[in-house]
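Hi R.,

As promised, here are both runs. First protein below:
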Amino acid sequence: MKRVFGVKKNKDPPPSIEDANERITKRGDSVDEKIKKLDAELSRYKEQIKKTRPGPAQEAVKARAMRVLKQKRMYEGQRDMLYNQTFNLDQVQFAAEGIKDAQQTMSALKSANKELKGMMKTVKIQDIDNLQDEMMDLMDVSNEIQETLGRSYNVPDDIDEDELMGGKLMYCFKLLI
């Protein structure tokens, strides 16, 4: 039959991790609601067991309570299974996001690397060395100019303490002024 009529193609995309996680979470919530209802029912049966006298009536209530308890344990098992599935989906989603982040990082690094290579073509180490040498020469010339401008006129370089205390230096300063 498949050859004559063909096979129906599935046009629906597969569910995303978020969709599957949301669906499982909803199912888990409904199972939790059922467990709460069964808990309420169990507590009613416990009260009935306490109030009834031992005998066939109490045994019937116990039997109903046992069925409800079995049902509750079944739902708890399903809930645990759903929680495990949600946990697995969360792990897969986290890993997928990590890979996407790594891809973006690699793309950014490649782009930055390409840009740096382009910049490095315009900058040559020899040009930097030459510029540094020129700056050192200019600084030396500037220092020489500052020293020349800062020279003192008509002040003897060899003044000792005795002359300073004796007043000869004051006399020299008066001459300068």
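And here is the second one, sequence first, then its structure tokens:
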Amino acid sequence: MQTSERHPSLPLRRARWAAMAAFATNGALPASLLARYAEVKETLGLSPALFGVLVVGLGLGGALVLHLPGIVSRRLGVARSATFGTVWIGGCLILAAAGVALGNPWLALAGLILAGAGDAVVDVAQNSQGIRVQEQYGRSLLNSMHAGWSIGAAVGGAVGTLAALGGVPLLAHMTLWSAVCVTTMALCARRFLTEAQPPPAADQTDPAAPQITHRPTGRQMILILAPLALVALAGISVEDIGNNWSAVLLSAERDVAAASAGVGLSVLLAAQFIGRLLGDRVIDRLGSRATLLISLAAVTVGIFGAAWAPNVGLTLAGLALAGLGCAVTVPIAFATADSVPGLAAHSGVTWISWIMRTAALGLSPAIGLMSQGGSLPLALSAVALIAVVALLLQLRPAHR
């Protein structure tokens, strides 16, 4: 039975804040190294091409583990998986930092790939715990937890920047920061809810909820998870555009000075953060399906608008709308996948997470190839079609 949101128990309230802190910790740990990537490139003397190989290490590691994160969470439980996974990430990032200190790019790459594998495990564990807390509260909370990840990433990036400005050696910095993050995660995991009680079944009155009451066949799995995977891809495509292409769009297509072109990413991330803070309230008021339809429509209009806007102001408005729309897509995809009856615990979250990570590896290169063959606005418009298809699939009746 779900706990009333007006009278949550003390353990439940503690579990909520522990889950949010776990998300923040998971964002903070790798971001502290990412903030020093320019230094890493210079120290290792990497060409742009080789540096490009290095930076995909985290994503590649997450893609290579396939369904392992779900198995780990089922075997160890989400609390131990989050704790041990964070220990693993910290140790591997220290290994990567050691590779930089030794001038060995292959050791650095190995550390990043291994850290990415651990990050996939922690990602599934913390989202599974967030979904369980959300179910026990009886209202949407997962979006605010993802906002906690954004806060943690910002803090981790700031710590990395300050360490670089202060001349702190990368290896010493990552060793100390890993110790802080591992300790924080271990303390958070102690407050996680236990998994003795299975989560409640999906609400069969919700048109967005899966309508299957037995173990899904392979075909049913595809029919259920493929649309959700597209929802998640629509969300991360906006993040990819912001991270890798917003500055290029503003400088190359809108004649913004290169030194100022980073404003596009700042606007998009700020809008996404606001969307994550407000997303739970919107879902509670409108329902997850209506919220998702509005969000996918916003992503579509936002990307198309940013791609073809005639001036800088409208381009930034389009990026902001896309950032606002993508804020709830991944949390909704995770929560819906987790509620599919008949799937092993954590399997839905695991597969959505894996598809996201795998697709993200090819997303930016695909945009680059399409831009080279046509133009960046055309490439971004092609990416917007992911959200269009996801929206159309969500408009179809649920499969029974």
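A quick note on the second one: Residues 218-253 form the longest helix (36 residues). Let me know what you think.

Best,
J.
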